[in-house]
């Protein structure tokens, strides 16, 4: 059986760190907590779980802090979590099983990262991250902010999920790091440019975000998944600026990189739906339900391949008076969102319409 060192970097996490550690303490053999300058009770709480609490002077570089954390590990494998992450009871059991069964030849294990949920508890957005890595391989983190772990070798894709459950978010931290990098004359990598554009967009600086997304795409050095996300982000920026033509163009640009993703299909469906081109819209929403989206390490918003296209198809089929089809898709949407008031109202409406027919 493998042994695991948990490695975390933290700062002012007194509200969440115990929740995280409670969810993992019985599974890992070692807990390493690297504090980057807390002024609250974070370190005090951490010391209730481990005597391996270290200080690291914050230098506006997440990769440096995480690499220092990894250097403290003494067990076979390293598991990394953030303080606002948790493992549910189901995923705790899955990790215990993995510990028993993981072949020693495996260099890194990916896990799902559940980022958000709807009111029904369904996972809305998720991605894959390499969470468990062999210590002796000395894999390193890269990037001052939005850092990534560079792994290689014999990789294993698990169905274990880490759940992100933040109580608050520092909206200024990341963009300030990027601004400090620019002020110091540091050269951005294409990945830095992409994530800086994301920060600019989140701060409603849409024009500058557009410039950076285009710079990133023009470099032709981005990972395909980031290229596709950049196109969707561009479309969102143009939407905010009421530039419908470029919004559509940015959505279509995703087709340069891969077959139509469910999100692209839904965006195109909505474009034609707004123009009352119902049959074309119907085509694209059906395509959203049939498109493959099995990327190994990528962001996925399940909304675009589950209830949303079904609900839009319900509306569209109602427009063209195909009520049986409309009812069918409303029922499909209801399986995902059984308590949604609009879907419930739709059901009552179609029950009446179909009864009268």
TrEMBL record:
Q: Which Pfam families match?
A: Glycos_transf_2
- The Glycosyltransferase 2-like domain covers 5-139
Q: Which domain of life is it from?
A: Bacteria
InterPro entries xref list: Glyco_trans_2-like (IPR001173), Nucleotide-diphossugar_trans (IPR029044), TPR-like_helical_dom_sf (IPR011990)
What protein is this chain from? Glycosyltransferase involved in cell wall biosynthesis
């Amino acid at each position: 059986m493998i042994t695991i060192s948990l490695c975390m970097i933290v700062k002012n996490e007194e509200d969440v760190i115990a929740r995280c550690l409670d969810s993992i303490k019985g599974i890992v053999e070692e807990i390493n907590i690297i504090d980057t300058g807390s002024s609250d009770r974070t370190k005090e709480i951490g010391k209730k779980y481990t005597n391996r609490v270290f200080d690291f002077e914050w230098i506006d570089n997440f990769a440096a802090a995480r690499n220092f954390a990894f250097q403290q590990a003494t067990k076979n494998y390293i598991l990394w979590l953030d303080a606002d992450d948790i493992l549910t009871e189901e995923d705790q059991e899955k990790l215990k099983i993995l510990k028993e069964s993981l072949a020693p030849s495996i260099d890194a294990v990916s896990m799902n990262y559940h980022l958000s949920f709807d009111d029904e508890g369904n996972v809305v957005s998720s991605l894959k991250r390499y969470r468990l890595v062999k210590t002796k391989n000395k894999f390193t983190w890269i990037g001052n902010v939005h850092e990534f772990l560079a792994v290689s070798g014999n990789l294993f894709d698990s169905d274990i999920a880490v759940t992100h459950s933040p109580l608050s978010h520092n909206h200024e931290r990341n963009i300030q790091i990027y601004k400090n990098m620019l002020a110091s004359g540091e050269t951005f990598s294409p990945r830095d440019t992409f994530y800086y554009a994301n920060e600019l967009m989140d701060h409603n600086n849409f024009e500058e975000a557009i410039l950076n997304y285009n710079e990133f795409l023009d470099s032709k050095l981005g990972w395909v998944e980031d290229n596709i996300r950049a196109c969707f982000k561009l479309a969102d920026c143009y939407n905010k600026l009421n530039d419908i033509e470029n919004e559509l163009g940015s959505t279509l640009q995703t087709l340069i990189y891969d077959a139509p993703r469910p999100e692209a299909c839904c965006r195109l469906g909505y474009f034609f739906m707004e123009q009352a081109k119902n049959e074309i819209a119907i085509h694209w929403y059906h395509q959203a339900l049939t498109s493959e989206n099995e990327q190994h390490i990528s962001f996925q918003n399940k909304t675009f391949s589950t209830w949303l296209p079904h609900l839009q198809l319900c509306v569209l089929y109602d427009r063209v008076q195909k009520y049986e089809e409309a009812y069918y898709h409303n029922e499909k949407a209801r399986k995902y969102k059984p308590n949604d008031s609009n879907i419930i109202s739709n059901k009552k409406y179609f029950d009446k319409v179909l009864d009268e027919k």
